[in-house]
Design a protein that fits this description.
It comes from Massilia forsythiae. It is an enzyme of class 1 (oxidoreductase). It catalyses: an aldehyde + A + H2O = a carboxylate + AH2 + H(+). This is Aldehyde oxidoreductase iron-sulfur-binding subunit PaoA. About 40% of the residues lie in helices and about 10% in strands. A hairpin with a 2-residue loop joins β3 and β4. α4 packs across α7. The protein has about 220 residues and is an alpha+beta fold. Strands 2-1-5-3-4 form a 5-stranded mixed β-sheet.
């Protein structure tokens, strides 16, 4: 019986000792900021690293001095005031920030501006204007391819790029024969547009708009 008690006490002592050791290890790291505040010494934050970058945005050269951590999305919205490109999830999941870089679409929230030195950036403002709409913009209006409109700029940029991808023979996840040119089909377009979320649910109207721009030749689309 005494032996059992000794064993239990030893086990209890080990557990208590381990907990005290862990607490002691954590206290210095927690106390360090408080010690600095108590001494009146301000915490030092390293200055941001900046760099110069030149982009061509909608055909116009733009040279900016930026914090190197600035995303392309924030440059467009906050520095160049091109607010057509929207910030939705800021995690590359919703597609509201889609723009075209050298003709290929990207999520601008996931890309640093300094990565695009000399690149040609096309935003929704660069596709068309209220006085001269791009055919895809006009088709979205005609087929009511939007409701709240928040995702619409990204949807339009993505739709323009998706048709170009098919035209250039770039395969998607649903392309059956990778050695053949992808079909201009509703399945291809749905797959290629799947990264652009419309929370209002205007997907069928969006497909009708894309089909019109494609000359009504999308296989499987509504006539």
């Amino acid at each position: 019986m005494e032996q059992s008690t000794d064993i239990n006490q030893t086990r209890r002592g080990i557990l208590i000792g381990g907990a005290l050791s862990a607490t002691a290890a954590a206290v210095p790291s927690m106390a360090a900021p408080q010690a600095g505040a108590a001494s009146g010494t301000p915490a030092t934050t390293p200055p941001p690293v900046t760099g110069k970058v030149t982009l061509r945005v909608n055909g116009q050269p733009q040279t900016l001095e930026l914090d190197t951590r600035t995303t392309l999305l924030d440059v467009l919205r906050e520095h160049l005031h091109l607010t057509g490109t929207k910030k939705g999830c800021d995690q590359g999941q919703c597609g509201a920030c889609t723009v075209m870089v050298n003709g290929r679409r990207i999520n601008s929230c996931l890309s640093l501006a300094v990565m695009h030195e000399g690149d040609e950036i096309t935003t929704i403002e660069g596709l068309g204007t209220p006085d001269k709409l791009h055919p895809m913009q006009a088709a979205f209006v005609k087929h009511d391819g939007y409701q709240c409109g928040y995702c619409t700029p990204g949807q339009i940029c993505s739709a323009v790029a998706a048709l170009d991808e098919i035209k250039r023979g770039i395969p998607s996840h649903v392309t059956g024969d990778l050695n053949a040119k992808p079909l201009l089909s509703i399945d291809e377009l749905r797959e290629r547009m799947s990264g652009n979320i419309c929370r209002c649910g205007a997907y069928s109207n969006i497909m009708e708009a894309i089909n019109e721009v494609a000359g009504g030749n999308v296989k499987g689309a509504k006539a």
